[in-house]
Design brief:
Blueprint: E1 11-15, H1 19-29, E2 34-40, E3 43-51, E4 58-63, E5 83-87, H2 90-102, E6 111-112, E7 116-122, E8 128-134, H3 144-158, H4 165-179
Parallel strand pairs: 1-4, 5-8
Antiparallel strand pairs: 2-3, 3-4, 6-7, 7-8
Helix pairs in contact: 3-4
């Protein structure tokens, strides 16, 4: 049977609060440019806002002026969305906790995830948001996923619990050795 091969996330659509609360959070807090809006074509009582999360793709938000912000946690039952994670630079990540605190937004504080650092907080309707920062840059011609696959293999070979920076460094070295030509006959020194 043939696959329906995906090529990345096209967009993610969320149910938001009212229009201004949604704009204030997605553009005002997270810095996602507000690209355009139009009616929700499936529900004339709702608006449909479009934001660029930084990669030219889209995060869209259905709005309704009758929905006001609540700070309850969104459901985490099986089949529900647990959280959305967005990539940020190391420079931005170092400022996230301070900037969220300045806005009065509660957060988890930085979390060490071995291959990345994360911080968690909620959107105006209680959806858990993660800002994440990789601890590595992939070598030229490779993706973050390429490095993660190789780091996973190394971790499993060594019997380690989770991916750590040493696995990333060794994975990058392996990928460079496989993909980068050299005139040297001995790359082991």
């Amino acid at each position: 049977m043939r696959k329906l091969q995906t090529q990345g996330v096209h967009h993610i659509t969320l149910t938001g609060a009212d229009r201004q609360t949604s704009i204030d959070f997605w553009e005002g807090v997270l810095g996602m440019p507000f690209v355009f809006d139009q009616p929700n074509l499936d529900d004339p009582d709702e608006g449909h806002l479009y934001f660029d999360p930084g990669d030219g793709r889209l995060i869209t938000v259905f709005t309704n002026e009758a929905r006001k912000p609540v700070h309850n946690r969104t459901p985490t039952d099986p089949g529900c969305v647990h959280h959305l994670a967005f990539n940020v630079s190391r420079a931005t990540f170092s400022q996230v906790a301070e900037r969220l605190t300045e806005r009065g937004i509660g957060h988890s504080g930085p979390k060490d995830r071995g291959f990345m650092d994360s911080i968690y907080f909620k959107d105006p309707l209680g959806l858990l948001i993660e800002l994440a920062c990789y601890r590595f840059e992939p070598p030229r011609g490779c993706s973050h996923a390429d490095v993660m696959i190789e780091a996973h293999r190394i971790r499993v070979e060594r019997g380690d619990y989770n991916i750590q920076e040493v696995h990333l460094a060794d994975a990058i070295e392996r990928l460079v050795a496989r993909t980068q030509q050299t005139l040297s006959s001995d790359q082991g020194s």
